[in-house]
């Protein structure tokens, strides 16, 4: 069994404008100045509370920031024009991979389970992923807990599992779990940071990602 696990924000979904906007609302709600756009995007991939600790410090009202952020997202999703656009090639790549016998797809994300559920409903992906791991149930990336749970749920071995993500947190998590770390160049961390965190490659298209995935022969050689 081959397991291909995807990060969401910055890998499958281009949600940067919503993330920055929701952070601005959250900081305003607790009377703090919002971070710069670069700083806001640098923590994408971390769990919500860990992200706010990085941005605002341990003395900040972390719980208040997290709740205000979630409320902001909830309000945005209720707008008729709300959309979380996919990166080019994401839908087609997932469809190709899902059609390959012996291949399962998974998600490992700092997004909330509610946020993931909303995305899956909007995209018609409810039955696409065999395992979904979110920050609601695990320590923040780069802790390997999400990937360990994904492999336990599906029965996939580390040698036949890959983590695809756009941040150094994704790559470090994959290294810690003993799975293949594959970076993408269109997300929120630069390629150099992904490689420094352990990425075996950084792809500039979903087709290039697919070419780097583990294959049955890899299991024989492992």
Description:
With 222 residues, the protein is an alpha/beta fold. The chain is built from eleven helices and six strands. It has helices at residues 16-29, 37-42, 48-56, 62-77, 90-98, 113-123, 145-154, 168-177, 191-196, 206-211, 216-221, and strands at residues 2-6, 103-109, 131-134, 161-165, 180-184, 201-203.
Short descriptors:
globular; 6 strands; alpha/beta; 6-stranded parallel sheet; 222 residues; 11 helices; single chain
Percent of residues in β-strands: 5-15%
Low-confidence stretches: none
Q: How many strands, what sense, and barrel or not for the largest sheet?
A: 6 strands, parallel
Q: How many separate helices?
A: 11
Q: What topology, given as strand order, has the largest sheet?
A: 3-2-1-4-5-6
Q: What is the 3D shape?
A: globular
Task: Give the N-to-C terminal Cα separation.
Answer: 14 Å
Q: What is the percent of helical residues?
A: 40-55%
Q: Helix/strand-derived class?
A: alpha/beta
Cα-based radius of gyration, to the nearest Å? 17 Å
Quote the average pLDDT. Answer: 93
- The tally of beta strands, per DSSP, is 6
In oligomeric terms, what are we looking at? single chain
Order of helices and strands: EHHHHHEHEHEHEHEHH
Please describe the topology of this protein:
Elements: E1 2-6, H1 16-29, H2 37-42, H3 48-56, H4 62-77, H5 90-98, E2 103-109, H6 113-123, E3 131-134, H7 145-154, E4 161-165, H8 168-177, E5 180-184, H9 191-196, E6 201-203, H10 206-211, H11 216-221
Parallel strand pairs: 1-2, 1-4, 2-3, 4-5, 5-6
């Amino acid at each position: 069994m081959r397991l291909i696990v995807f990060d969401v924000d910055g890998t499958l979904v281009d949600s940067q404008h919503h993330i920055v906007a929701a952070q601005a609302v959250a900081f305003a709600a607790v009377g703090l100045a919002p971070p710069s756009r670069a700083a806001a995007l640098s923590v994408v991939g971390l769990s919500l509370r860990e992200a706010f600790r990085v941005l605002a410090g341990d003395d900040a009202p972390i719980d208040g920031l997290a709740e205000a952020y979630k409320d902001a997202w909830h309000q945005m999703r209720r707008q008729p024009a709300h959309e979380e656009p996919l990166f080019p090639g994401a839908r087609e790549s997932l469809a190709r991979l899902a059609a390959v016998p012996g291949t399962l797809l998974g998600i490992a994300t700092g997004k909330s389970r509610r946020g993931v559920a909303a995305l899956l409903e909007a995209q018609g992906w409810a039955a696409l992923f065999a395992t979904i791991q979110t920050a609601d149930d695990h320590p923040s990336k780069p802790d390997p807990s999400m990937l360990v749970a994904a492999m336990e749920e599906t029965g996939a071995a580390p040698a036949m599992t890959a983590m695809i993500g756009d941040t150094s947190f994704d790559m470090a998590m994959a290294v810690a779990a003993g799975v293949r770390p594959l970076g993408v160049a269109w997300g929120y961390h630069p390629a150099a940071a992904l490689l420094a965190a352990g990425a075996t490659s950084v792809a500039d298209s979903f087709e290039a990602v697919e070419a780097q995935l583990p294959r049955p022969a890899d299991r024989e050689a492992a």
